[in-house]
Amino acid sequence: MGFGEVRDQLDAGSQGIMNFLADLQTLESFKKRIDNVLSDLETSAAGPNNIGQDALSSSHFGVGFSEASALFGAYRTVHSELEKLSKVFADQIEAMSMLVNMANNDYRNVDEEQRLRLWEIRRSTKAYAETHRQAADEHPKDTGKPTPEESTAGGTA
After folding, report:
1. Torsion of CA 153, 155, 156, 157, to 10 degrees
2. Is 19's pLDDT higher than 90?
């Protein structure tokens, strides 16, 4: 092997090391950004522990007429879904942060607690997605087009 070949191999190896270090810096930067987003979310009014604190009561919508009750029911449904979504979102950010940290360390020293937490996040996210997938299947989106039943009714709205 000549000097030129050795130099080429060293250059290729150095380039690989430089690429690895650049990837490592990118992962570290990404992890910091994820950690900041998670921290901001947890301390904000939209955080999973805070979003339920300012719920309205039915009297805020009025008393004694059905529209107020219906509006309050819709409000409770939306508020509850926002709480669930906030929790799932915070869990996803936590999982991303953990995974970036694990990748940064070549998946060494991953303890049982971290592994279990990732599986719990996966299970809860999957359950949330499945529940909402079923709900979407039961209540298809309004496309603005008449249904076949409406089209054959022969009348106008």
Report:
1. -60
2. no
